[in-house]
Amino acid sequence: MSRFDALRQKKYLSRIIIFGCISACVPIILIGSVYYHFAMKSAMENIVNDAKASLLISKDRVERIFQNLELDSYSIASSPIVTNSMYDQDFTNNVLGHGEINEMLDKKKNSNDFIVDIVYYNSKAEGAISNNYGYIPERFYKDNQDLRTAMSWEASSKWGYLPYSGKKGYLTFVRQLPVVNGNNKNLGALLIHADTREIAKYIDSPTVESVLILGPQQEVLLRTGEYGVFDNMSAAHFMQTIRGIEDSSGSFFQDEVLYTYLKTSFDRTYISMIPQKEIVSSISWIRSFVIITVTFFFVLSILLTLLTSFNVYKPIRRLMHLGKSLNSSNAKSIHTNEISFIEQCMSYLKQQSDQLIHDVDELKPVLKERFFQQLVEESYVNDKLIRSHHQIHEIMSHRSYLVLVVTIGDLHKDRRFSSNDRAIIAFMMKNVMNELLVKVDRFQGEVIQDSQNRAVAVIFSDEELSASELLDKVMEFGQLIVESIQHYLKLSAFVGIGRVHSSFTDISSSYREALLALQNRTYLESVSVINAEEAQPVKKHGNYYYPSHLKQSVVTALLNGDLSTAKSNLSEYVRALRASESYIVITHGYFTLLHSLMESLEQQDTVAYVELIEHDLIGQLKERQTPGEVYDWYVYELFPLFQQIRNRKSNVASAIQLVVQYIHNHIYDDILLTHIAEIVDMSPSYLSRLFKKEKGVQFLEYVQECKIKEASRLMDETGMSIGEIASKIGYSERNLTRMFQKHTHMTPGQYRTKQREFVK
């Protein structure tokens, strides 16, 4: 490309970019301005509505709290215990009456999370009863100033702050006693101290800056948030504004603050305050949004313009880059001569095509193996797809086909390999079979590996061989495979051969027949090469009798611990099953014996039975095929495991005793089932089942009972507080109270009070 063309292209691109920016940015700016105006208005309305909704929710929550506390106060004040105590001439010495009132106050306090303390004051007896101190004379009560202030209030019930408790942030509800009307008044008062911090949690709202709650006399009951907004304005002016509005709810702006108020039927006023600057800052994102949007579309217009320009010149640009890469020494001629440039491109494409064909040729063996894998395992969806691949891999339709499957026996005895190495073994067998296949004549084949890691050879022949002649040749080839694998890999191999078929679509049928032939290893252990024609099942069921007596003899001998007799009876049992010459009968007999052994163990010890089934015995038995493999598995794996689990039962009592002793010796520690299971060398689940069986309770429940007993002892014998006792035994005070109530049906405080009264 000449310098003039480059400059001209740049000029066109610049014009397109400028025009695109103007076309995109001007409408965006106009739309953003209009959107900003309406969004600001809508956002203000939403903020006002959110403030009203938040305040209404806060009002409902706090009113519910106030009403519940007032109902609790009325319930206590109107109770016969409190009413009678006010007329009790000897109330000061009535210890039983003190305990009853204190118990009632404790119940009310524990049932409400907002109550910090409840104080019952008897002015006639000049004494008070509280949750925190019990009964105490007025002169010794450090909050006696609160009592005198509460008695001075004229209202029969009122919310407010008392001198001493108010400094702690407690809002107090005072009810004058007695509740019923009569000549005797001001005989006492009931004070419920509520924690304003807990109440404030129920009125926090992300949409409200500050909340103020006023009482009937315009006194402040509760404040939350920042209060500078309210303090800077005249309280008298503000209250005058509120009183001048007849509506029970509403909102208004005053002194750059949005005020929202609600008046309740209890003559309480709820007020929320949001500074205007907070409102403006919360919706300032619209400006940023408009700026970011304009910038985004400005950049986008540039990118789109560049992309459009590049698309126009893309074919030429690609050819130019291709020409430079093909003939960098003659790049100038490529720029000036388009014909030469196109010829260079075509030459490059030809080279790429040749390389692609070469790569496909290299992949043909892999594709061919994959084709046969899908063919033998019937992974193809339809016959049309099979025939398409059949033509690709040049398999003639008039050939004879059969399948040969090779598997390894007694792999569990070979310590060089594990059950997870079957894929490696199959790969080695494939290599051996491929080398042998090259040396044979009269037939050809393809060796693959199926999904179960077995070596599979698909045999096909063009020779004029009958089915029996081809089968004889393949039988000799199978025997050669067995001998070679034994010689080179030191492994015992078994070969199953399917029937001969005339169509390649029947290869999957021959594969299934070869697998069925391998199943006959259950009674043809000495035969290494088995073909489907010779392995027809012999129907002996009419003359065959299942050796159930031998099966029972094996189970009985094993339960009695007589391993030699069990082995002898097992050998006779396997020999009797082989006599049936039926894969189904033999396999069923092996699993029936396993079921009988597990059933006998379940009848004696359920826990041991559960542990036995966790070893996946059925899966292990399925992996054994020949009589020798099955016999060895029973004798060297199942019988020792069976005896080990049964013998463990005798050590259960001592193990459980050791667990109980450990719990008592470490009662102040964090006792974990997993740690104790390691000590007694058992699994946690097995130890848990044994403990339940021996002690009659779950492990965790037993630990809780021991800790509760220790807590009771500490409360009886020491002066430690409830919190100190809970920390010592490893519980929080709340958890100790919950556990103590569960096991003793009383709180720790009630238990200690009861014990002290009993001692007195």
From TrEMBL:
Matches recorded under SUPFAM superfamilies: Homeodomain-like
Parts of the chain that traverse the membrane: 12-38, 285-310
PROSITE patterns, per the entry: HTH_ARAC_FAMILY_2
Pfam entry (one): HTH_18
Keywords: DNA-binding, Membrane, Transcription, Transcription regulation, Transmembrane, Transmembrane helix
Signal peptide per UniProt: none
Keyword presence, NADP: no
Protein name in UniProt: Helix-turn-helix domain-containing protein
